[in-house]
Specification:
With 197 residues, this protein is mostly beta strands. It has strands at 31-33, 45-49, 52-56, 64-69, 72-76, 81-82, 88-96, 102-115, 127-132, 137-144, 147-161, 167-172, 175-180, 191-192. The protein has a domain at 31-157. The termini are far apart.
Length: 197
């Protein structure tokens, strides 16, 4: 009888999603948490610094608390304003706890913002935002204050980063999609009916 060798199996090419934690300088909080369900009124907040958890005021006047990652705080300095079609938006600031520098990244029309868990190679944060386009929201990556990349048009303003910073999950018309953080993959939804307006 003829012996048929086993078919070789391809090696996995997918990169692992577990990455080493981004180094946080010792002088910045390891954790900043706003204990309000709505994410508004950023003072006081819980901060974990030098192994001590305590309520502390933020060093900036944050009205809308968006996100905190590795020494960077994304926030809105103004309370929600309304667009012409009654969507809630504000500005976008990034505060660096290590340097003490507070910088305006977008003047208006931000409905939500989330910092990537993995910064750019330059060390700068990458911020995904739901930016109002006059009708609804677009999923946009802010790479610097004046540099942005449109990923997906007309989304619901709800999205989340993957732990490795390579993908974003977002909602559109009650469907859940996943796209690369580099360019919209155009993939079909992975789930339907996940959110009702």
């Amino acid at each position: 009888p003829t012996v048929i060798p086993p078919t070789p199996q391809p090696l996995a090419t997918r990169r692992p999603t577990a990455l080493p934690a981004t180094a946080v300088p010792p002088e910045v909080p390891a954790f900043v948490w706003l204990p309000y369900a709505t994410g508004n009124f950023g003072q006081p907040v819980l901060m974990l610094k030098n192994s001590e958890l305590a309520y502390q005021p933020l060093p900036v006047a944050a009205e809308i608390f968006f996100d905190y990652q590795a020494g960077w705080l994304a926030y809105g300095s103004k309370f929600w304003g309304a667009t012409t079609n009654q969507q809630s938006v504000t500005d976008l600031h990034l505060y660096n706890f290590a340097s003490g520098i507070d910088q305006l990244w977008d003047e208006a029309n931000i409905g939500r913002a989330a910092l990537s868990p993995v910064p750019a190679a330059s060390g700068q944060p990458v911020v995904a935002v739901a930016k109002h386009n006059g009708r609804g929201f677009d999923l946009v990556l802010k790479l610097e204050p004046d540099i942005e990349l449109l990923l997906v048009e007309d989304i619901d303003p709800y999205f989340s980063w993957s732990p490795d910073g390579r993908f974003l999950a977002y909602l559109r018309d009650n469907d859940l999609f996943v796209t690369s953080a580099d360019v919209d993959s155009g993939a079909p939804p992975i789930a339907s009916g996940v959110y009702a307006n």
